[in-house]
Amino acid sequence: MHFRTLLFGLTVLCLTIAPVAVSCGGDEEKGSIITMTGTITYIDLEGGFYGFVSGNGDRYFPINLDQQYRVNNTKVRIKGKIRENVMTTIMWGTPLEILKIQGLCQGESL
Hints:
By secondary structure, the protein is mainly beta. It has a single domain (about 5-105), classed as CATH 2.40.50.500. It has one helix at about 5-15; strands at about 20-25, 35-45, 50-55, 60, 75-80, 85-90, 95-105. The strands form 2 sheets. Strands 2-3-4-7-5 form a 5-stranded mixed beta barrel. The protein has a two-stranded antiparallel sheet with strand order 1-6. Strand 2 (about 35-45) and strand 3 form a beta hairpin.
């Protein structure tokens, strides 16, 4: 097997297995900062990933979700920046860079 063919195959495999976020250039500081509450949800699409569904039903793809919050149905409050200049391999939700995240207690309302 030629090295180029092997390298291409490995690249395609890696891109299909792991969610990837890629900057599309432009001003890295652009993007709306929002604070909201909602639920971290496991999405069983494209190999599986964790998304964030806000209290009003908006869907976001957190591009830097800490491992401790990767638990299905976790209630959280998030301060984040909508990343309009980022492409991901995930075709679900709006890319969101998490600036601050806080778990909510069971009795705490969204």
